[in-house]
């Protein structure tokens, strides 16, 4: 399981009449509650073994899980995703604290507005948000985690570098491979002795900020699990509801470079498109500023914000305008300071700045010469009183802008909404013909059979040299008994020469194969034993056994059936001769 | 399968580190350094000794550079630009960022100041660095299908890394230079427990043991403080990177604490520039430095400003950082010539100076002294000399700790002095029982490498391997008898043994299956080989009158007792009507005509014990039978 998006708070006042149209007065006025994945509560948390975090945003719901006492899973995230994610959570907690100061501390976990009779009175739009469109999401609402929850949550996260091998339980090698979506965001490669899985979430081939999509790191996987497919080219099988669906391709090994080049061509468009959007936002902003207004930009994806700051620095300088830029967040300072020291997580263009001795981002210089200011909260900024806003850029996906702006209506401010979707999905269509594809939807467990029946297994050479092979008479095959000490490390099973003293009893010799009577007679005759064969038939006439009689030197009988040979004799020497003859014909180990 | 290790530099010496290792056909060059002590062809490694030296690009799979010091990277631009290597080169991000500064600085000193013929130009450095792929710590890099490399934190200088390389089952570690104790700006080397065939380690301090660095640091600070208090000037010759920033951090911090206002200067603009790199790369420093980056980046030196040449003879105390570190020429020598005659001044010397440099001469000098620069120039040295004794290299304990922790199959020592290396080799071989070598330059060491046979294992087999195999034992009580009962613990060991069947078919990978499933897997049926014998027991006549007197169960008990006596070590079962020892089963046969009866006896006082056993217990069974046959029934009654 990966990310849990948190839906926005419901700080809206409740409406009294059911059919009243939605306006600012109908919103609920209370401390916010937060929504996680609707079925999180249905999970037995203790059954989760591993949690992988694919992006900084993807960690925001994690404390809901980790604060559960039964939670014992290993959590993997990239270092950058964990750090930025932690800052985002801390920001969320401090924002929530402000709400609490405003609305007063919550009297219980279930606020007044969540009572049934109160809910019934809400306008339809709000009820849909609260219950979900299919009415199943009410259970997903939770009070926010505390700062302490965030801290304990972070202690449970094992942070990784890109392409660092983490070994889970000796058997799985887990690697985070850069996905390009955001600083620190990643796809996952999971390799075990029986096969490998690649988990691909939103990925961007050539990103403007983060290190790009490293598809090579995922090559050769047995199964590719796609997530976060955007709907543009998605097959009709998807319900609108299942917008998280992806495809599971089997045998997606040997993704050749040819396949990728076609994808790379598309990625250029992708890059340009993102650039165009950024340019557009900037030019709109400059227009607003020229007209004497201010620009308000809600902080969404960090990469976009950093890019916008780069742009503003350029655009404002070229227009020869000196306009202060403020970043207001309780973690603004830490976030900006962190972005200055992570060249390893950035795209090539930004890394080149390191090599040429420049700061990674222009905001370093902007902060120095007073073009950019960081403030922890809006009230710490005394200047703002007289500013008249002109424009809002929302680069947040999945938020209903009209609802978000409802409390402030009527507004004279211009609103610009711009969503930065991420790449990946368009290229999948044509591949569908060349690889087996399966589709999955929410809440459905998909079983994908292993492509290999046998696990990869290494035998130490010194052990292998000691093996005593027997060649089977019937199959063209050599077999040998194998004994040693099994070691599981770095995702591999290894058999080493074991401690001889510790070895348990050797298993008895096993015989198998068919005992051919004629061959047996010949073998016995060679030993000087004369034989006579008698067939034993059951009542219906089918043969059940053969008896080989030996009269000299002592009376003996050999009863041969499909499954066993029974030697009856009172003479030890004869017994030994016969068993030698029998064993020489059978295969044994 | 073998690993071939050709030492092209730093063999029984310090300088021009370069080792070419061939692992299962993949050839890697670790470091490509230059020797600062030579100006002839000995300055560079003898690249012609590399096999197929006409085409290095195809001969070498990759080059790995551990850190930015010239004795590890100095020959790289020459190798790529003059000798035509154009294959992949790997180094960490800081090394890629800082190496060009180092190389350019060196080139300037050599060409511009000393007027030597240049071996590579500024453009060569730029072009060379373009071919470099930067790697992060622990990032697993797949160089090609078979070769995997990974960097580990090495301490030493910013961005220094040890490199792990793996081809197939064979794996090695090349440490480069490293430090096993953290210092004020860098952390200690960190490594995973790896399965290694070979560790190639530096051995600069093969026999030295050092105490805490903090004491030495305090001595240094005191010496500097005393000098400036007495109105003297302090000259700290360093290279542009590494030591300069470390000492600067020390001083900056000390200045803050002691509230000193004496200026600290950096001689070249270059070094100030270098601080900027350090600021961005702060994640590669020690944890303590890292933790404070938000409030104040430790490389944002508050008390440091850049130097102007006119200040050399300005009155009043100050501290000056100047390159190069060993006072081999350049600005540091220029300043030293002016300051050395004054007793109030102080010059610090790095821990290691190459022979021939002023630094080296000063190390052994007693004040006051005279140093001859060349035939015409002689300097009077009256100033204080403080030798920095903290070194970013590990000491002997660190080397031993690392080798012991990694427990590789072989160790090769490089980057050290021959007699000390010999002593360390002895220790490694005697204390750790690991084979150790210290080849001279241009020698090759060949070692065997690990190799596994690849097979496939079935689930049932792997499952069966996980079965516990508990053994309980009590420690020998004799010695423990005096002790409390509480000490008489039972020792439980669980030495699991994996047992299975390996099957080998033509043109297929070997497969391993469990003992219980292999018949099914092979498509064969088990065929039991068993024996049967319906053994007559002749009852003595005395019994005959009262046959009912001895019931079969009584007889059975009698046999059982006898057998117990004869086979004390075996687990006998007396199950009412049967006797069992392992697979041997005997029970009274009431049949008139038993198929397993071979004797045709007319004896009337006979009863039969019908026995069967499997092949494995053949020997045992015949012994049992002979006892039964010779039962002394008469006596027993």
Automatic annotation (TrEMBL), chain A:
The chain crosses the membrane at residues 41-65. InterPro entries: Integrator_9su (IPR027074), RibonucZ/Hydroxyglut_hydro (IPR036866). Keywords: Membrane, Nucleus, Transmembrane, Transmembrane helix. Gene3D superfamilies: 3.40.50.10890, Ribonuclease Z/Hydroxyacylglutathione hydrolase-like (3.60.15.10). It is found in: Nucleus. This is Beta-Casp domain-containing protein. The lineage of its organism: Eukaryota, Viridiplantae, Streptophyta, Embryophyta, Tracheophyta.
Automatic annotation (TrEMBL), chain B:
Residues 15-239 form the Metallo-beta-lactamase domain. Transmembrane segments: none annotated. SUPFAM superfamilies: Metallo-hydrolase/oxidoreductase (SSF56281). Residues 244-362 form the Beta-Casp domain. It comes from the Eukaryota. Belongs to the metallo-beta-lactamase superfamily. RNA-metabolizing metallo-beta-lactamase-like family. INTS11 subfamily. This is Cleavage and polyadenylation specificity factor subunit 3-II. It comes from Rehmannia glutinosa (Chinese foxglove).
């Amino acid at each position: 399981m990966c990310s849990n998006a948190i839906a926005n708070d419901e700080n809206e006042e409740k409406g009294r009449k059911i059919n009243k149209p939605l306006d600012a007065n109908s919103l609920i006025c209370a401390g916010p509650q937060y929504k996680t994945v609707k079925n999180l509560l249905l999970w037995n948390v203790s059954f989760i073994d591993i949690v992988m975090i694919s992006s900084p945003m993807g960690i925001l719901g994690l404390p809901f899980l980790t604060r559960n006492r039964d939670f014992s899973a290993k959590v993997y995230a990239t270092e950058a995703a964990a750090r930025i994610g932690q800052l985002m959570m801390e920001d969320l907690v401090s924002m929530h604290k402000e709400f609490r100061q405003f609305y007063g501390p919550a009297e219980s976990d279930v606020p007044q507005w969540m009572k049934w009779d109160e809910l019934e009175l809400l306008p339809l739009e709000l009820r849909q948000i609260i219950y979900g469109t299919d009415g199943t999401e009410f259970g997903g609402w939770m009070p926010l985690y505390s700062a302490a929850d965030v801290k304990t949550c972070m202690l449970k996260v094992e942070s990784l570098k890109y392409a660092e091998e983490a070994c889970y339980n000796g058997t799985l090698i887990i690697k985070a491979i850069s996905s390009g979506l955001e600083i620190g965001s990643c796809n996952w490669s999971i390799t075990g002795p029986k096969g490998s899985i690649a988990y691909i979430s939103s990925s961007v081939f050539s990103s403007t900020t983060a290190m790009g999509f490293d598809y090579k790191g995922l090559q050769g996987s047995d199964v590719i699990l796609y997530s976060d497919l955007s709907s543009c080219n998605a097959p009709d099988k998807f319900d609108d509801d299942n917008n998280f669906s992806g495809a599971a391709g089997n045998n997606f090994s040997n993704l050749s470079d040819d396949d990728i080049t076609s994808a790379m061509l598309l990625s250029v468009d992708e890059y340009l498109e993102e650039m165009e959007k950024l340019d557009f936002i900037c030019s709109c902003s400059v227009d607003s500023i020229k007209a004497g207004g201010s620009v308000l930009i809600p902080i969404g994806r960090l990469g976009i914000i950093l890019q916008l700051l780069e742009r503003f620095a350029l655009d404002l300088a070229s227009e020869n305008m000196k306009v202060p830029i403020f970043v207001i967040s309780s973690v603004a300072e830490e976030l900006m300071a962190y972005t200055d020291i992570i060249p390893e997580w950035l795209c090539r263009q930004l890394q080149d700045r390191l090599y040429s001795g420049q700061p990674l981002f222009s905001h370093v210089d902007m902060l120095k010469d007073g073009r950019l200011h960081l403030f922890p909260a809006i009230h710490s900024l005394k200047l703002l009183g007289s500013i008249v806003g002109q424009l809002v850029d929302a680069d947040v996906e999945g938020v209903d802008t009209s609802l978000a702006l409802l409390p402030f209506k009527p507004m004279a401010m211009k609103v610009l909404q711009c969503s930065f979707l991420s790449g990946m999905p368009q290229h999948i269509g044509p591949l569908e013909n060349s690889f087996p594809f399966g589709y999955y939807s929410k809440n459905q467990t998909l079983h994908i059979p292993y492509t290999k029946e046998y696990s990869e297994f290494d035998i130490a050479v010194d052990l292998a040299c000691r093996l005593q092979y027997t060649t089977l008479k019937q199959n063209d095959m050599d077999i040998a008994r194998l004994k040693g000490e099994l070691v599981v490390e770095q995702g591999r099973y290894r058999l080493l020469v074991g401690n001889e003293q510790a070895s348990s009893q050797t298993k008895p010799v096993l015989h198998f194969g068919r005992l051919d009577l004629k061959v047996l007679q010949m073998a016995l005759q060679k030993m000087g034993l004369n034989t006579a064969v008698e067939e034993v038939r059951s009542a219906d006439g089918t043969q059940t056994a053969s008896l080989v009689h030996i009269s000299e030197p002592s009376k003996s009988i050999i009863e041969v059936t499909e499954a066993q040979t029974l030697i009856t004799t009172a003479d030890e020497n004869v017994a030994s001769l016969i068993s030698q003859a029998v064993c020489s014909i059978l295969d044994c180990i | 399968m073998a690993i071939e290790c050709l030492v092209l530099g730093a063999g029984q010496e310090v300088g021009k580190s370069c080792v070419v290792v061939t692992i299962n056909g993949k050839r890697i060059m670790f470091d490509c350094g230059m020797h600062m002590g030579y100006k002839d062809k000995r300055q560079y490694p003898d690249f012609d000794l590399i096999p197929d030296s006409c085409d290095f690009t195809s001969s070498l799979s990759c080059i790995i550079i551990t850190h930015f010091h010239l004795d590890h990277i100095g020959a790289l631009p020459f190798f790529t630009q003059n000798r035509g290597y154009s294959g992949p080169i790997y180094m960490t991000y800081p090394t890629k960022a800082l190496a060009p500064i180092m190389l350019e600085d060196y080139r300037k000193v050599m060409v511009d100041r000393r007027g030597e013929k240049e071996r590579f130009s500024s453009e060569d450095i730029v072009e060379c660095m373009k071919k470099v792929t930067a790697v992060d710590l622990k990032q697993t890099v797949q160089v090609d299908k078979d070769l995997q490399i990974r960097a580990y934190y090495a301490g030493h200088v910013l961005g220094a890394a040890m490199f792990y390389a793996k081809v197939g089952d064979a794996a090695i570690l090349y440490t480069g230079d490293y430090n096993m104790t953290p210092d004020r700006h860098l952390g200690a080397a960190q490594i995973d427990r790896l399965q290694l065939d070979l560790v190639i380690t530096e051995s600069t301090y093969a026999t030295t043991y050092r105490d805490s660095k903090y004491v030495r640091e305090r001595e240094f600070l005191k010496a500097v403080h005393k000098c400036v208090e007495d109105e003297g000037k302090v000259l700290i010759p360093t290279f542009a990177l590494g030591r300069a920033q470390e000492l600067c951090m020390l001083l900056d911090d000390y200045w803050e604490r002691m509230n000193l206002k004496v200026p600290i200067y950096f001689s070249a603009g270059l070094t100030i520039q270098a601080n900027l790199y350090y600021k961005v790369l702060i994640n590669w420093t020690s944890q303590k430095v890292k933790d404070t980056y938000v409030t104040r980046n430790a490389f944002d030196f508050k008390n440091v400003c850049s130097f102007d040449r006119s200040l050399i003879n300005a009155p009043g105390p100050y501290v000056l950082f100047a390159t190069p570190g060993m006072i081999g020429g350049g600005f540091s020598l220029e300043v030293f010539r002016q300051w050395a005659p004054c007793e109030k001044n102080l010059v610090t010397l790095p821990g290691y100076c190459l022979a021939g440099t002023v630094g080296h001469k000063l190390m052994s000098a007693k004040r006051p002294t005279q140093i001859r620069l060349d035939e015409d120039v002689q300097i009077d040295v009256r100033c204080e000399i403080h030798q920095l004794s903290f070194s970013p290299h590990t000491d002997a304990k660190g080397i031993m700790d690392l080798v012991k922790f990694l427990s590789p199959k072989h160790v090769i020592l490089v980057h050290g002095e021959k007699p000390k290396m010999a002593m360390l080799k002895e220790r490694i071989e005697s204390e750790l029982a690991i084979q150790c070598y210290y080849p001279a330059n241009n020698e090759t060491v060949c070692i065997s490498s690990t190799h596994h046979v690849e097979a496939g294992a079935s689930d049932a087999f792997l499952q069966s391997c996980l079965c516990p195999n508990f053994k309980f034992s009590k420690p020998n009580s004799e010695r423990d008898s005096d002790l409390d009962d509480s000490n008489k613990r039972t020792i439980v060991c669980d030495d699991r043994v994996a047992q299975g069947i390996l099957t080998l078919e033509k043109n297929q990978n070997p497969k391993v299956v469990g003992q219980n499933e292999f018949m099914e897997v092979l498509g064969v049926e088990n065929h039991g080989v068993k024996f049967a014998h319906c053994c007559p027991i002749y009852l003595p006549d005395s019994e005959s009158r009262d046959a009912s007197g001895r019931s079969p169960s009584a007889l059975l008990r009698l046999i059982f007792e006898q057998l117990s006596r004869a086979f004390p070590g075996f687990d006998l079962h007396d199950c009412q009507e049967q006797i069992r020892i392992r697979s041997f089963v005997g029970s009274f046969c009431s049949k008139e005509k038993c198929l397993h009866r071979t004797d045709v006896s007319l004896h009337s006082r006979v009863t039969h014990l019908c026995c069967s056993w499997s092949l494995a217990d053949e020997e045992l069974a015949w012994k049992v039978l002979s006892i039964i046959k010779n039962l002394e029934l008469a006596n027993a009654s």
